[in-house]
Amino acid sequence: MRSAFAYTPRRGPLQVASPGAAVAYLGALVAVAFLYSSPLVLAAVGVAGGLAGYLAGAGRAVRAALWLGLAIALPIVVVNALVVDRGATVLARLGEWPLFGQVNVTAEAIADGVVFGLRAVVVMIAFAVYSACVDPDRVLRALRPVAGRSALTATLVSRLVPVTAADAGRLRDAGRLRGPAAAPLGRAALLRRLLAGSLDRAVDAAATLELRGYSLEPPRHRFVEGFSPSSWGKSFTERGTGGPRRLGGTASRFDGRFYMAGAIVLVAAIVAKSLGADGFDAYPTVELGTEPATLALSALIVLSGLAPWRRHA
Amino acid sequence: MTRRRSTAVATALFAAAFATAGCGFGPGEDVGEVSLTVTRDYGAESVVALRSDTVSESDTVMRMLERGADIATRYGGGFVQSIDGLEADERFGHSSDWFFYVDGVESTVGAADYPLHGGEAIWWDYRDWSAAMRVPAVVGSWPEPFAHGYDGKRRPVAVECIGAGAACEAVRGVLAGVGADVEPESGVDARSDSAPEAIRVLVGPWARLRRDPAAAQIEAGPQASGVFADFEGGGPGTRLVGLGLDGKPALTFGPGSGLVAATRRYDAPPTWLVTGVDETGVEAAAELLDPADLHNRYAVATEGGEETPLPVR
User: Is the dihedral of CA A36, A40, A42, A47 positive or negative?
Assistant: First the structure.
């Protein structure tokens, strides 16, 4: 069974677009999530990311990211509520705890933790959509002239995650096939086997890369000679000499849409911030600003989630 | 059935432990009255009129302030940024911030981490701290810290008469009158054999007091002592100098002038100084020990029956 986050080739605009355009679009959403603390804006980013994922056919990845994000957000909320003793509204007094001292749970600390958790969830959704919709090989090709080894590492990591998930699925299937009388397969045993398997795979990948000459210095290319308009869209090896290329190699007619959506979201977020949007304070009492700039930005961000929409199937 | 019973027993045990460990829901029981005053410019101007409020066992200085004024915080709710719109500021080389004193002693922790036990006198002051970043103790919360102690503990008071004569007896009488736990007299012109946690009150002419390490900090300027006063000359010609907001001499007091100030050396309990340029000055200073003369003042100088708050404005 394939991992929900594994890249699945489709003919949707987000998959067809060059990786640079997809990264600009999804990266703008992530940037807004880190720039703002308003739950309204963060929720809008989450909705936009989810909408984009569903429209791009990555609904499963969005759902998986949502659950994974909630699993991460819940401990954040709990820890923040226990560690931070600030805020005016004390909900519960939990007495003296070792290391923590007097522990008071306040509504404000919970609200603050919820904002941290919400940010984690929306960022995970954006990364899930990226992982499921952007071809890692195209990312590698796009980044190879700029940072070859980093691109290779990133691609290997993004490939190894779904491979490990598939391994886990196979191991679970094998465990079930032992029959109903067999002892259930524990998570610790599964993780141990996966870790050992991933180390084997890493050694194999390293040996293969070495045999293919990846440890050698990359060939130096001249960026003027060897470049011609007809070389656009051809792969690195097809062109032979390299040269200036668009990020992601083949350009798509959808690129402009995603670059535009990303730029509009980012510029609007910066302008709105300078106009006083993002009115949220957790302490000393929770104050959620609903000024027009925040509401307008939230609406714009939600609309940006329609960017991967395709009129004709 | 057994499992259900175990769950019920565990729940009951948890509830019992929760209740006996001082835990509970809500802010908890009332522990007493606390007074709050908010001023600016070394107590010169009132921002929030003096008020008293009942505090509960989970209350902190920040929660008390939040109930009495409109505040904004920074650093995750740990520090006060503004009270009733008066915001921390830095311009033209001058920095102004909010400082708070509990029972006349500057806190070493943030307002959100300072628990209240009932009976405290809280004083918030907005001031330019360019001349003295730290003013460790003030006289403006009289009769605190003598009546209830500080840091949640009642402290003994050691009155040290160093060539004071009648003024010393007057000081002892006033302190006993406000409920201070005054240590027994250990002899004329002798340091009392005080407990290390005792609040010291030095009474005597400056020429004698200046030998005490805590009192001698005054001669090192307000940056060291937090007291905007100095003494010039020696012997019969000693003069008291009131310092301005910039820490420079602003007003000189002649014979018969006195000073009531408080300072603190390292983490030792505060040391109050009831002193003067001569014996008449010491007696005049002793007469200042009442709320009318000391309320919301960092230190007070007196000459010819006229009080001058320090720093001089």
Answer: negative
Q: Which of B216, B247, B274 is nearest to B127 (CA)?
A: B247
Mutating which of B30, B53, B63, B109 best tests the A interface, going by the most A Cβ atoms within 10 A?
Answer: B63
User: Is A85–B112 a contact, with Cβ atoms under 8 angstroms apart?
Assistant: yes
Q: List residues bridging with B263 in a β-sheet.
A: B271
Question: CA torsion sign, B130 to B135 to B139 to B145?
Answer: positive
Please indicate if any CB of chain B lies within 8 Å of the CB of A90: yes
Residue A178 pLDDT > 80: yes
Nearest neighbour of A90 by CB, restricted to B21, B26, B112 = B26
Cut 0.80: pTM above it:
no
CA distance A313 to chain B (A): 49
Count CB-CB contacts under 10 A for residue B251. 17
Q: Stretch B170-191: mean pLDDT, rounded?
A: 80
Strands B229-232 and B249-253: unpaired
Query: By CB neighbour count within 10 A (0-12 exposed, 13-18 middle, 19+ buried), where does B268 fall?
Result: middle
pLDDT (average), residues A177-190: 85
To the nearest 10 degrees (0 to 180), the angle between helices A292-304 and A39-55 is: 10
Say whether B28 and A90 touch across the interface (CB within 8 A): yes
CA-based nearest distance A111→chain B, Å? 12
What DSSP character marks residue B278? S
Q: Which residue blocks in A18-84 are alpha helix, DSSP H?
A: 19-35, 39-55, 59-83
A104 in contact with chain B, both atoms CB, cutoff 8 A? yes
Burial class (CB in 10 A: 0-12, 13-18, 19+), A94: middle
CA distances from A125 to A76, A162, A204, A249 (A): 17, 16, 31, 26
Q: Could you give the CA distance from residue A192 to residue A12 in angstroms, rounded to a whole number?
A: 38
Domains of chain B: 7-128 (2.170.130.30), 156-310 (3.30.379)
Check CB contact of A79 with chain B, cutoff 8 Å. no
What's phi and psi for B33, nearest 5 deg?
Answer: -90, 145
Neighbour count for residue B92 (Cβ, 10 Å): 6
- How distant is the Cα of A286 from the closest Cα of chain B, in angstroms? 11
Residues B208-266 have pLDDT tens digits of 999 999 999 999 999 999 999 999 987 778 899 999 999 999 999 999 999 999 999 98
Which residues have C-beta within 8 Å of that of residue B76, sequence separation ≥ 6? A84, A86, A112, A283
Query: Is B26 at the interface with chain A, CB within 8 A?
Result: yes
Taking the C-alpha atoms of residue A270 and residue A265, their distance in angstroms, rounded to an integer, is 9
- Using a CB–CB cutoff of 8 Å, tell me whether B29 touches chain A: no
**Least CB–CB distance from A86: residue in B57, B72, B112:** B112
How far apart are alpha carbons A295 and A276 in whole angstroms?
12
For residues B263 and B300, the answer to whether their CB atoms sit within 8 Å is: no
Pick the closest to residue A262 from A5, A9, A14 (CA basis).
Answer: A14
Q: What is the ipTM of this complex?
A: 0.78
A291 vs B: CB within 8 A: no
- Judged by a CB distance cut-off of 8 A, whether residue A286 touches chain B is no
